[in-house]
Amino acid sequence: MTDLLARLGVALPILQAPMAGTSTPALAAAVSNAGALGGVALGATDAAGARAMLAELRAATSRPFNVNVFVHAPARADAAREAAWLDALAPTFRAYGAEPPAALRPIYRSFAEDDAMLAAVVEAAPPVVSFHFGLPDAARLAAVRATGAVLLATATSLAEGRAAQAAGIDAVVAQGWEAGGHRGVFDPAAPDERLGTFALVRLLVRHLDVPVIAAGGIMDGAGIAAALRLGASAAQLGTAFVACPESSAPPAHRAALLAGEGARTVMTAGISGRPARCLANRFTALVDALAARTPPVLPPGYPTTYDAGKALHAAAAARGEHGYGAQWAGQGAPLARALPAAELVATLAREWRESRVARDA
Amino acid sequence: MTDLLARLGVALPILQAPMAGTSTPALAAAVSNAGALGGVALGATDAAGARAMLAELRAATSRPFNVNVFVHAPARADAAREAAWLDALAPTFRAYGAEPPAALRPIYRSFAEDDAMLAAVVEAAPPVVSFHFGLPDAARLAAVRATGAVLLATATSLAEGRAAQAAGIDAVVAQGWEAGGHRGVFDPAAPDERLGTFALVRLLVRHLDVPVIAAGGIMDGAGIAAALRLGASAAQLGTAFVACPESSAPPAHRAALLAGEGARTVMTAGISGRPARCLANRFTALVDALAARTPPVLPPGYPTTYDAGKALHAAAAARGEHGYGAQWAGQGAPLARALPAAELVATLAREWRESRVARDA
């Protein structure tokens, strides 16, 4: 067992990605109880929701788990851009018998400024706390660290990895371009080299002193074994867990994910306002069409755009069309399996061990 | 040793990517003599050049080697688009005291239609022949197969991998999005899911019956070990070999590649007309600026655009500016090392073996 696994308190080098809106306390507990590190995310809830979620998780496992927060730069209102976005979506709303909302709101607060959420996290004192989209300021970081939590942060580049290490983060989650869901890039307006898992993990392992957790495109035991060979101390899998019965993924999301070779993903900022990888569907096709207009119609920032996306999904779903959902998935989607979480963890562990034996024979 | 390595006739699971314009017979021979599979590419030459290259290579090694050909859809002239591209580049030509060429030519023929090149390849009967950008028709493929060559083909998706397998290709090179140089996608006008090495290799290994060779972002022994864990039978490295003294990379290309963390890559079709990954430089910045115009100025097809790019590079280089070169490199560029090819192969082999021991302890 590596130092990182000892610190995390898990036997297996496997983390279940804490997917906001998709993971649940039941999923996290099942994963943790099976010997990997389960996780929940607070990015799509408020302090009260977080308290309820963490209480449910504590009741369901005595094992360590990971609690993730989104530390994005707080939304800046841009009335003109928001109105243009709503105008552009309006015909699609009307096609499903609905009207777009009159205005958009930044529906989630950032951990960077949410004092109530900080208090809820400190009070719950989770064994592991992970930061996505950036790092909190020194005072907030110190408050979380004082609970004794092991601290993780997502990095998509060496610069972000270095920033996390300098802030005293215990281990960095190297999130490759393949990864599903929200890309953790600190500044979505800056150029993004879009480093794949292979290059990113190797780069961070070579240049950082803290342990690296590989994420992006890892779906099975062979992927876990490969991540460890790259020098990662563990692998984080998200898409692999989306089809578990314990996740909150809606049926249409599961069906699209389990379409086999039809499960094709794209990176888009049009659903939430930040780049995120999801299954190509009616929504991503609409976003692409708007971007192809002259001049292009581009989404407002995160999470304001998400307000529009959720309304559009609700309107379409009410008429039976589920292709406007945020169907997050990584490039490994065609390898997804629908297994109960405990069985999936056991399968991953068995595949990982078998692949070690097979390849070294 | 796996079946693939036995068929290729090499001891190490390492292929040196046959980089058109950058690899040389000396590089390929040094790699093959060191126990890996060296390679040269014929995509930037004609039948006479190929004969000379292959004679030089045969004289320098008695070991197996790989000869790569580009099988792109032959260029279609588009006078308006070509003229617009030259117009857009003209101010940059003039900044270096030159005029753009009056017209562009498709400077390289495709193996899909080049009978003289087919004759040269059949005559030389290389031990391994690899196809990039697509597959030749059945008659040409049969002619090459009849020489006894082991046949490889690049695939960037499962569909391309399936096409290669159906054509009777012996092993597929799974080229991830991280890879440097020309992306092997069969149809550059079709949507590209941009699969990273991690997801692509795993997907092809799971779904194809032929062996898979992993490519993209692999720079050292740990990367090779990881590729094998993903189920690949070997790893192909290109960028790792660019800084070898035996390559033909110009000094500015080497210097940019060895800039460490400054070695940042982008995928661009603006240099040659097909998507290719290179170090960000003045040329890629210019291409980006042209694409950002309203309406966007986009490059003609391959290899016609390359004619303009080579002329621009020559004009700028004549005035001492080397930032318009085609400085191909993959995302692993910051991990590049300047070692003689034989020493690099020995280092890769040692690192690979050490990483097996270290990780299994």
**What is the level-2 CATH architecture name of the domain at 3-74 and 109-248 and 335-360 in chain A?**
Alpha-Beta Barrel
- Please state how the strands of the largest beta sheet of chain A are arranged side by side: 1-9-8-6-5-4-3-2
Largest sheet of chain A: 8 strands, parallel
Secondary structure: helix percent of chain A: 40-55%
Average of pLDDT of chain A: 96
The CATH superfamily of the domain at 3-74 and 109-248 and 335-360 in chain A is known as Aldolase class I
Q: What is the secondary structure topology, with strand pairs?
A:
The structure is a homodimer of 361-residue chains.
Chain A: H1 3-8, E1 14-16, H2 25-33, E2 38-41, H3 47-60, E3 65-70, H4 79-95, H5 115-124, E4 128-132, H6 138-145, E5 150-155, H7 158-166, E6 171-175, E7 181-182, H8 197-207, E8 212-215, H9 221-229, E9 234-237, H10 239-242, H11 251-257, E10 265-268, E11 276-279, H12 282-291, H13 304-318, H14 341-360
Parallel strand pairs in A: 1-9, 2-3, 3-4, 4-5, 5-6, 6-8, 8-9
Antiparallel strand pairs in A: 7-11, 10-11
Helix pairs in contact in A: 2-3, 3-5, 4-13, 9-14
